[in-house]
Amino acid sequence: MGKFKKSKKGRNKQGNEGKWDETPRRSYQDIVRENEDFEKYYKLQGICPDSEWDTFITSIKENLPTTFRITGSKVEAKALLKVVKSEFFKDILNPTQNSKTVDESVGENEELSPDELKLINLPWYPDGLAWQLKLTRKDIRRSEEYFRLHNFLISETNSGNISRQEAVSMIPPLVLDVQSHHKVLDMCAAPGSKTSQLIELLHGDNNNIPTGYVIANDIDNKRCYMLVHQAKRLNSPCIIITNQDSGAMPNFITKSDGKPSIVKFDRILCDVPCSGDGTMRKNPDIWLKWNAANGNNLHRIQWRILRRGLEMLEIGGQIVYSTCSLNPVEDEAVISRILKEANGAVELLDVTSKLPGLKFVPGMSHWLPASRDIKGYEKYEDVPEEWHQQIIPQMFPPSKEEAEKLHLDKCIRVLPHHQDTGGFFVAVLVKNKLLPWESEKKEVELENKDQEKGSKRENDKTNEPQRKKRRIQGYKEDPFIFFDENEPLWPLIRNFYEIDSKLDPTCLLTRCKEGKKKNIYFTSPGVRDIVINNADRVKLINTGVKTFVRCYNTDMECAFRLAQEGLQSIIPFIGPKRRVPITKDDLITLLTCDNPKLPPEIFRLSPKCQEHLNAISQGSCVLSFVEEDNKNDPDNNSLKLHLVGWRGKTSARGYVPTADCVHYLRLCGADVSKYDVNKFKNKPTGDLSGEGDSNSVKIDVECEVNENEPEEIIEADAEVEKMETANTVS
Ligand SMILES: C[S@@+](CC[C@H](N)C(=O)[O-])C[C@H]1O[C@@H](n2cnc3c(N)ncnc32)[C@H](O)[C@@H]1O
């Protein structure tokens, strides 16, 4: 779904683009990576065989290699992968040395040990799209040898076509088995790297809008706007962002088949808050503050979230529980506790076949809950009273007989030295029947109560005018106002773009009750159902992908231009008139135009494109490129690029941000060397940073609308940038 991505207006405004590798403000070099308690605690737990201890402890003290994955639809991602392999990895990494520094089949290379390999294609990530570079970001940034790779990583990150994500953090969405019809809940989602993967998996390679959706939730309001930022990159109409404590997450109501019912989710990701000691390689400050009490205190929160997740899960549904902590009290102890409480209603799944080539150890069945002074206890009765607040009976490992039933060995533990990553824990659970404390009756009663509350609010609402900013438990968000069947704006837009009647206009929404509508967003019908039926009961932060934008250019018959963000969602519904076929050469001509004041004249484009443009009125249009080579491929593997364009009086333009522009040019095999400035020799003129827009191909200024991004989003954009930079996830 290369289609569902990009646009980083907020980031551009902040001038934060391109800082993919900026060193975190505080200097990690000065941190002494030692913590006696940490070592004592994990030796006590026996998290690895004694013979591996030295390798483990050495590895966890080293800086983390750089990892990234290529995002997008299979076709577009594969095209970019080809560029990565042919243009960057082979030539740039040790060009004069043995080409086997690139390993595409880990384990099969007999000549070089993994230690000698600089570049590894992660074998367990589908389609070879994830890579690990044995170089830190600083190595890449500081060395002239890698300047082209550095430029590439910056610009493709900016355009959302690669995602910098720690290798192990890619695992949970992969084992969740998300399909396009699934209702997916991401309970602790911010900053959202896994949410992005979930959305990509939901869209799969199907061009249809998925019937399922992803609800991405976080308790931290500020961090919710990081999710908005991630969602903006993906341009999916199937995501909703909510701001709740997931340990007490309210039920969602649906009326999809007429009568109200409680939504049960098919897939849930429970990537809980944790001590994060698996991330010490990228967050060395954890060495300074690590203590055993931390994990003990988190156990209860983690258990509470997982428990609520299981309640919200459909029978037959799957939930992934994950942490970036090595601590069994935060990992197996939570799983063991919940399995015991569920009394057979929930069981662990073995998902190792979904991760071919991943090195890991099975989950532990024995551990020693320990007090802050690193004294481990075999049983609760041995715990001195002073620690009873911290250590509770439920944290203890199962008895031998219990352990045989629980199969904690189906959990996956990745330790840093296994394949030079961070540490990680992941477990997949399936719900086979109602939980012992759940009953159909209770759910129905609850639902009725919810309905009563809902209708009371409705009645109250009719008696008082709706305020622009509603307040639910202190939160304020602009309302979500869906078009009704008779929306006066719709016929105008529909006729201009010849929009098929299959597009339901009631799935379009705005965020302003009064005044001129500026931006029109689009959601899938499933998302619309959730928003309409839950806006009064759940803190909804954001939904919808920007699809039409008010345009003040009076040369256009329609008051709304297309927005690139929503184009991929509605392209199947747009009629042939405003879809302009372009060739690869047209695309290159349109995208290499540097001067917004001098866009290419129509006569410079291909005859077919000229003919089409000459036949339509001025204004917004779609520029559609379909790769000729594979046009008749039965698997429909031809590269298709749809860009928002503008038909001017005598000229045409692509309306594409700079980073996207470079990306498309790269995919077309065009020359992008003018953007590829060697900063060690020249001051950059090509604008890969995105801070300026000198090279972006832009629409007439008068048609550009003043899209005021909410302050929270701009701040969050900057914050995500900072986090990605510092690689801090937990
Ligand atoms: C490990 S991080 C999640 C990382 C995220 N899944 C990702 O891949 O980018 C944990 C998140 O849980 C959130 N959180 C903590 N307590 C929570 C709660 N009770 N309900 C919902 N979210 C919570 C934190 O704000 C934090 O963003």
How would you summarize this macromolecular structure in one to three sentences?
This protein is of the alpha+beta class and 730 residues long.
What is the oligomer described by this structure? single chain
Number of strands: 28
Structural shape: globular
Write out the distinct hetero groups bound to the structure: S-adenosylmethionine
Report the CATH architecture of the largest domain: 3-Layer(aba) Sandwich
Could you estimate the helical fraction of the residues in percent?
25-40%
Beta-strand portion reads 15-25%
Low-confidence stretches: 1-25, 94-114, 457-474, 684-717, 720-730
The CATH superfamily of the largest domain turns out to be: Vaccinia Virus protein VP39
Query: Helix/strand-derived class?
Result: alpha+beta
Rg, rounded, reads: 27 Å
Question: What is the CATH topology classification name of the largest domain?
Answer: Rossmann fold
Mean pLDDT over the full residue set: 84
What does this structure look like?
This protein is α+β, with helices and mostly antiparallel strands. 32% of the residues lie in helices and 16% in strands. It is built from 22 helices and 28 strands. Strands 6, 7, 8, 11, 12, 13, 14, 15, 16 and 22 form a ten-stranded mixed β-sheet that branches. Strands 2-3-4-1-5 form a five-stranded mixed β-sheet, covered by helices on one side. A hairpin with a 2-residue loop joins strand 17 and strand 18 (475-477). Helix 8 packs parallel to helix 9 (221-234), helix 9 (221-234) packs across helix 22 and helix 11 (292-312) packs parallel to helix 12 (332-342). It is globular, with a radius of gyration of 27 Å. It binds S-adenosylmethionine. S-adenosylmethionine (SAM) is lined by residues 169, 187-194, 217-220, 223, 245-247, 271, 273, 305, 729-730.
